[in-house]
Amino acid sequence: MRKVMTRPRPRPSASRPSTGRPPTRNDSRRPTDRRPPDRRPRTVPAQPPPHPTEVFAERLLLVLSGQRPLYWAARHIANTAYDELARLAELNPLGTDGHRPTLQRVGHYQPHPEAYEVFARVATGPRLRALAFRLALGADRRWRCTAVELETGRR
Hints:
single chain; 5 strands; Nuclear Transport Factor 2, Chain: A; alpha+beta
């Protein structure tokens, strides 16, 4: 049994990386550091590509929150899952209260080498919701979503 929990990836910062040194001062009462500034380009360590479960969770979140149209993800979703996603998207379950939904955790279980059962925790403001979907590897070696479920809070 291979059950995996992934942590959300930190998003790259648009700000300048810290040099680890205190800022220099132009105060005449203090001696200044006479070393020339470090002019070497800073390299950002390369991150591995995101797991397919994380990519699909983000795509489904954007569609279910109304930030993207349903046809935006159509080629990545099988027929029966597309119908279910269309039904869920009409309800707009994650587009309420003015809060932008975010993925808290994404985990998966791999019952077969060519399939993932994925579960995700979605936060919309103070409320948490559950999202579950299944990915299957097609004959063209591309991942497709074959089932989608969302806890909508309505019974």
